[in-house]
Amino acid sequence: MLTRADANSAEVTSIVELMAETGRKARAAARPLAIASPEVKTIALLAMAEAIERREAEILQANEQDMANGAAAGMTSALLDRLKLDEKRIAAIATSIRTIADLADPVGQIIAEWDRPNGLHIERVRTPLGVIGVIYESRPNVTADAGALCLKSGNAVILRGGSDSANSSRAIHAALVDGLEAAGLPCDAIQLVSTTDRSAVGEMLKGLNGNLDVIIPRGGKSLVARVQSEARVPVFAHLEGLCHVYIDGSADVELARKIIVNAKMRRTGVCGAAETLLVDRLIAPVHLAPMLDDLIAAGCEVRGDEEVTKLYGKANAAMEEDWSTEYLDAIISVKLVDGIDGALDHINHYSSHHTEAVIAEDRDVVERFFNEIDSAILLHNASTQFADGGEFGMGAEIGIATGKMHARGPVGVEQLTSFKYRVRGTGQIRP
Amino acid sequence: MLTRADANSAEVTSIVELMAETGRKARAAARPLAIASPEVKTIALLAMAEAIERREAEILQANEQDMANGAAAGMTSALLDRLKLDEKRIAAIATSIRTIADLADPVGQIIAEWDRPNGLHIERVRTPLGVIGVIYESRPNVTADAGALCLKSGNAVILRGGSDSANSSRAIHAALVDGLEAAGLPCDAIQLVSTTDRSAVGEMLKGLNGNLDVIIPRGGKSLVARVQSEARVPVFAHLEGLCHVYIDGSADVELARKIIVNAKMRRTGVCGAAETLLVDRLIAPVHLAPMLDDLIAAGCEVRGDEEVTKLYGKANAAMEEDWSTEYLDAIISVKLVDGIDGALDHINHYSSHHTEAVIAEDRDVVERFFNEIDSAILLHNASTQFADGGEFGMGAEIGIATGKMHARGPVGVEQLTSFKYRVRGTGQIRP
Prior knowledge:
Aldehyde Dehydrogenase, Chain A, domain 1
């Protein structure tokens, strides 16, 4: 008779083996995928979009089951909204796949080329990364976006969605496999991990015996933190977007007012939302109050340092922890600083290296802001909410990275590639 | 009274603290370094080259001490030769620093730029990586090359040389610090780890509390293997260069003979040296023997598969392990294959993803070789020994990487940079 411990251990062994097998299959699929022509990949993507539409009823039914399970488990309405699919959202998934199909194929692009005095011609050419692991939570559309972006960039992908959206993801995945089959590409190019056991994630973090080249976590801070601290393979991610807006003394104040409200309030839950406003002490006496009035009128809570609360009675007092808090909510922390130097000191101390904006007319101030802050995205006279692959013209993104290696800022199809050198000679030998 | 265990534990604590402090100092130095002008960095590099020449006697004396210690410890003559400095080698170190000074400054270079329909202008700009750790063995010139390349690319560097070359490295490091001082740059921008205790390496592999952005190991396979398996930060390295040369049936045989001798025998100890020769079965009956005669005449041992030994009596029998052995010596393994398909199968199975060459006149063969092999460097009708940053026109390299992330192939100053986005607006807000 099997004891409970035996059963658990057998289950764990089988998940280790299941994930190892998933990795081997992905690696095997990666080679034909890497050399698939742009036309074949486009055929697959268009067939996927069609299959999403054709399987609409099935996907909605699967999603209803997830929604019912979620409601029964006491999921919050915000989470249920993320999980929910309807006809409009399914149409958006198909549109998103078609947008990705229309992008330029990055594989084989010559990034640089030059000649050497000995006649060698050197080309640096984009190649796929290999096998990408995507670990995500409840948004079922990530299944389609991640699958399509990885295919476009010639990578095999292992998708590990949250258990909350398991049925929806499975139904969407079936449509992606339809597309692969229609183009004669290996089905293992897009695999969905079938177990909802959490140890599957642990196996991915260990790298599946070298069969996983990069991991992209999509979800809340605790997921990203776990992946970043435990992964033995490179990770493209951002832990938080603690974005700053600095209003310089030289700013066009009307423009500044418009931008800060947009940067904070357009959507408060996105990583590009502003969390801290820094205002040049020079202009605070006259211009601080109207700016903060705008924010309060838009429904935002203002938390200021001592100077701010003195100047502006409607501000609550900010604590030290406010300067390092990503609210993702209708709250902003506000501080007066001594011009660009004060702004640089604050941002370089508290930044999460995601996105920061400077509002200024003084060119020297702008150049110092651009040069002396080491964040993925720096903006001048524009809203931090432009921190997005679509807004950058990348067509679609799988996320935003704040690391310094390989991919930084929005991660689109180009960022999902590596490169190699092709050297063309005519018999050169090295002296 | 302190017990032996107490003393050991105090020592270890002090190394942990020493390395943590080294990391903090490097991070602090990285900010002024990142914004140092190209001119200031050039002043520093030229002053370093001068200081190397001025301190020649001192460096030679330190090196004599290392050589004496090495000889007393029974170091092999090959290792002693790597360690040895003389006037010519010191002059070469100074020249190498001047070459790096002359390179284009990568920091601030605009890699790409484009406009968005809403008027935003987006620039992707090169930035330093931050803090680089270089772990190396007995070659004292790595101290100077690594220090100069990291400075040129705006990075702080922590150098951890082998204990064998500790005195030489210390003397060279003093000259580098002279250069930093002459340019008014922080001395902590180039730090040499003063302890020869091995646990210092362990601390670097753990990442010095986030103060180390990338590690570059320079040395033998066991060092690289340890760094690759234990490092918690990205690593730029290659474990081995198991380079292949494939001679297609369409090859210009005279050209092939010249290249294979050069690829194998120019220098047998470098990572770009050929280790396996694959010959199209079609041309073997006529052309194999003359090719192998050339190699044997050049002093090379030939190890062939069964077909090769049958066709060519002077070949020894190759074992299975020969196909995965990087000899770094005057030995070559030789195998007949069924054209390009056979070559692709063999290389994709055994390659270390470093460098491979195809000798062929048939364009389709060349394109398949270029497309279907995922190695950092692929060459057509040229020797594998061109796998080198200098030969690529990068001026100097800190090593060759075979990973797919960030840096691949020769790692020069550009590969030691990251990037960020600068977005210039005129008041854009996101709808």
